[in-house]
Amino acid sequence: MNKTGIALALALAMSAGSASAAVVNGIAFAGGAYFEVGDVYEGSLASDGKLAIMAPGQILAGVGRIDNFKDSQGNVTWSRGQNGVFLSYWFDGYKTQAINSAVPATPPFNVLFSGGSIHFYTSATEFIPTGSFAADKATISAGNLWVDATGATTRLCTAADNCVDGVGTPIALDSFILSGSLGSIGSGAGNGLLNFTGGPAQLYLDTNAFPGGSDAALGSSFNSVSATAGYAASGSIDIRGVALPEPATLSVMGLALLGMAGIRRRKAA
Predict the structure, then answer these.
(1) What is the pLDDT of residues 20-33, one digit of tens each?
(2) pTM score > 0.90 for this model?
(3) Contacts of 118 (CB under 8 A, 6+ apart)
(4) Residues 208-214: contacts with CB within 8 Å, 24+ apart?
(5) Longest dimension (CA), the chain
(6) How far does Cα 1 stand from its chain's mean position?
(7) Residues 6 or more apart from 256 whose CB is under 8 A from it?
């Protein structure tokens, strides 16, 4: 057995594990599980974000900022403004399929959405929401695209859901109004799934690691009581996913495996 070859293969494998961080447009995140958190401002598309969703068929839209990225141990790998970079996003296309409650006008309400897309951009200046979705979307989109995502299917509409597009419609976002009313939300929460579809960060985030082959889980909490910057509601958002190591790391890992394979072949010979 070639001890030098074994040492080289082990060193390569160890260096692969230690070089797992990736940086895209100044945003650093570690390979493996990650968790990003930020804020969200939202409302109906028809009202330019100023009014709440009130009926099936209406489209949910909004904007927000990402505060930081954390790895699986909770260590911050990037925070807002680090490396002179800010990360913001806008979303729309979430069609309200159903608003269900046991007693009309009495929470909790279950609000189901289909479709949807989210677009993340980096910029050198911090985005400040103005209360106009159209204007804020234009401001965010003037930056550099980081990653695009679409809503992924969490489940299909049943007859009991009474979805406007019928039984079998894919649901991408499931929200609950826990207190207050549709027009004045005391507290609410939502969850859904995402598929990453484009942009330079897709290479690292498109891992199919979640149910149905989706790439990340989306969660939010929101209300109409806190400062909403002119939007119908505001709150917090979190995205949990699994990132691939940087390509250089993958190459080193490949070399390590090749080294181990070579050692095995020489031993067999």
Answers:
(1) 678 999 999 888 88
(2) no
(3) 89, 90, 91, 148, 149, 150, 194
(4) 209/241, 209/242, 210/152, 210/241, 211/154, 212/152, 212/153, 214/152, 214/153
(5) 78
(6) 48
(7) 9, 10, 12, 13, 16
